[in-house]
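Appendix B, example 12.
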Amino acid sequence: MSIGGLLLGIGFGMVLSFILQYIHNEPILEGNLTLCMPYLLFYVAEHESVHVSGILATVAMGLYMTNSRTRISTESEEAIHVIWSYVAFVAETLIFLETGIVLGGTFFSFQWIWLAQLLGLYVFLHIIRFVGILVLMPFLNLTGYKLDLKQVVLLSYAGLRGALGLCLSLIVKFSHKIAPAIQE
């Protein structure tokens, strides 16, 4: 599944790159192609007759397209950037809405001990992150990433935030491999 997904993604990237080299100064057409082709790729990859990793295929196509970015005309780059920024905004908003709707009902059975445990875990994770970065600081300084204590504090505070954390919580909530006591 993994190798097939990578190969399929590179193949779709080659096709998209080939098509884009013949389209010049058409922002709407170029934007539509860069928006629709990944969805088509994911659908094809996950189809039962193909059955390869759709996520790996999409990532491989994205990496291939990053390498052949010059195929997109300079006149269309701004429009494509706006399109993808809007798609990212809508996707993040939908994740926040879905998480609120799905997990909102669990707060009706709220217990104060959960709040204390969550706050303790939050502080503990920051401490772990701070110690990990502090231990690696000499190695980072040797490689050219000069860090001072203020930057270590900032890096330790800038942990997992936003939509990714909410996606992970939804996975925990609906996974059949996780014990029901943990899911709640």
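The mean pLDDT is 85. The chain has two domains: 2-76, 111-183.
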